[in-house]
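Study this fold:
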Amino acid sequence: MSVDGLRFTWRDQGTIGGVGIALTAGDPVPALPLDLTTGLQVASVAASATTTLWQATASPLTSFDFLYIMAGDYPTEDALDTEDIPALVGQLELTCNDGANERIWFEQMRSGFPYRRFSDVGVDGTSVADVIDLIRFVNNTAAAVTVRFLLATVPA
């Protein structure tokens, strides 16, 4: 069903580095000064493969206040007009406490739909608050997937 003259946009609200912010579809990054950033990273993940996108111990950026990730391409047509649901392109794998007492959880990714996170705080395997220290992308499709992502911190 198509509705003429009506458009929906997403709006996210969150706290980054203790500062409340709001993002809308037109905002590429929060309107806050970024202290450290990975810059926009692009990775091609082979079919049926898992790729490490970020690891706290192997990056100059050892923690983050903001994560933006998108897998696949932007939709070429408005989903409200076509009623097509973009295909699942894989899973984002987030790990707290890589190794001992680790907890891994997955976020399903649809082509062209971003995932945003405003903190690196998660929970380890013993249900204690901990930070995410490993981010992977699991491609469970039969074709390579392009993943674009950015991590950043804000000044204290």
The longest strand covers residues 129-138. The CA atoms of residues 93 and 102 lie 12 Å apart.
